[in-house]
């Protein structure tokens, strides 16, 4: 994960991103995605400038930002965990995995660990129904996740800011130890 930008650098990046979008309202979603990709989140203080650029009300921009679960209003945690809550994963142990993750991290869904380094969020289907339960760790998808594997994946990701291990062909089916 990239280091957070200073406020001045974030302002410069935001201005450059908005300049690449001509202000047509159909460009709002692509601009919001580009802003979040570049800065990591879209601060509420940025909403008025976005609204002016697209000739929208602040309420309209706020509505889009809060409707789509992808957008964040604050800097993301160093590690972002999402656990699948769809039926296939739940039938294969996702509730047990969630309970373990909550105990391990000391937070509920939509929360952060006590030190703020890990966020825990639900996701409704990662397309790994045949390999349930599934989770993501940052942007990597992992299938057939057990509580022990969750612990190993998380420990690996937190170790010296190393990214989670991935498999180049798609969902990670790494051995239980990792």
TrEMBL record:
It comes from Massilia forsythiae. Binds 1 [2Fe-2S] cluster. This is Formate dehydrogenase. One of its GO terms (molecular function) is oxidoreductase activity. Belongs to the complex I 24 kDa subunit family. PROSITE patterns: COMPLEX1_24K. The keyword Metal-binding applies. InterPro entries: NADP_DH_HndA-like, NuoE-like, NuoE_N, Thioredoxin-like_sf.
